[in-house]
């Protein structure tokens, strides 16, 4: 436990000292919320647009923090030989992985809390009445997208290309999954693509819990799909994740 807490503290220090990472993974969803919230009006899904936007951006924040940010970090550390050197230290690999994942979860939970506070102050959005389901949703989303991030990091060949590859996945997925607004007016083939993406089911889960007062266990299909995507990411991670640099 002592080693784990030390590694968690170390990961947090690295994250917050890296201004670029903090802006990309933590601040960007908050800026999007303020910008889109000032543009959207009326009602969406039967609730005020700002409330629906807050729910969707909870899911988008998960994709940015737990998927994009983690995948880029792992690729950069691998190509800089940090992961290779890490294996030569007395630090157990399990403790390192647990520290990285716990740090990722901590950032995502903090971002979620900040979104709720920001929404309340700026747009008057309500607090969630189902805290347990919200927390379980955050854990499920973190596990799913972190597993996918580790799997993807093993497929990306260079540190220079990591940001481009990840953004090429995250931004289209966010549009197709409803993270930036409803998708019912999209062409049928785009909705069909969005229907198989994990972020779509996280958005649906967030909407069900925050907007319509359901519990996490009331949406077994969404939970099952996210768990399946997480399992797929874990399988790829086991087969393709590398500790040694690919380049040079």
How many structural domains are formed by the residues?
Answer: 1
If helices are DSSP runs of H or I spanning 4 or more residues, what is the number of helices? 10
Quantity of strands, as a count: 2
Whole-number average pLDDT?
91
Instruction: Quote the beta fraction.
Output: under 5%
Largest sheet: 2 strands, antiparallel
* Helix/strand class: mainly alpha
Order of adjacent strands in the largest pleated sheet: 1-2
Rg, Cα atoms, Å: 18 Å
* Separation, N- and C-terminal Cα atoms: 36 Å
Runs in which pLDDT lies below 50 for 5 or more consecutive residues are: none
Order of helices and strands: HHEEHHHHHHHH
Which descriptor suits the 3D outline?
A: globular
Helix content: over 70%
Topology:
Blueprint: H1 2-17, H2 19-39, E1 43-44, E2 47-48, H3 49-79, H4 82-86, H5 93-123, H6 131-153, H7 159-177, H8 188-194, H9 198-211, H10 220-240
Antiparallel strand pairs: 1-2
Helix pairs in contact: 1-5, 2-3, 2-5, 3-5, 3-6, 3-7, 3-9, 5-6, 6-9, 6-10, 7-8, 7-9, 9-10
């Amino acid at each position: 436990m002592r080693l784990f807490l030390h590694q968690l503290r170390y990961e947090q220090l690295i994250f917050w000292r890296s201004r670029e990472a903090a802006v990309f993974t933590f601040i960007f969803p908050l800026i999007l919320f303020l910008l889109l919230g000032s543009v959207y009006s009326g009602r969406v899904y039967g609730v005020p647009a700002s409330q629906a936007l807050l729910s969707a951006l909870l899911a988008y924040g998960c994709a940015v923090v737990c998927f994009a940010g983690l995948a880029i970090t792992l690729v950069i550390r691998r190509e800089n030989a940090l992961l290779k050197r890490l294996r030569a230290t007395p630090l157990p690999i399990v403790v390192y992985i647990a520290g990285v994942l716990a740090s990722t979860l901590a950032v995502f939970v903090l971002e979620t809390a900040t979104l709720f506070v920001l929404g309340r102050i700026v747009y008057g959005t309500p607090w969630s009445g189902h805290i347990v389901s919200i927390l379980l949703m955050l854990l499920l989303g973190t596990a799913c997208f972190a597993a996918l991030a580790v799997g993807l990091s093993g497929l990306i060949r260079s540190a220079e290309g990591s940001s481009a590859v990840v953004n090429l996945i995250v931004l289209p997925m966010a549009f197709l999954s409803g993270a930036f607004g409803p998708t019912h007016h999209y062409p049928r083939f785009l909705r069909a693509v969005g229907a198989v993406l994990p972020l779509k089911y996280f958005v649906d889960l967030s909407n069900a819990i925050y907007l319509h007062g359901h519990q996490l266990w009331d949406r077994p299909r969404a939970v099952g799909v996210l768990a399946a995507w997480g399992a797929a990411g874990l399988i790829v991670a086991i087969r393709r994740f590398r500790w040694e640099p690919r380049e040079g």
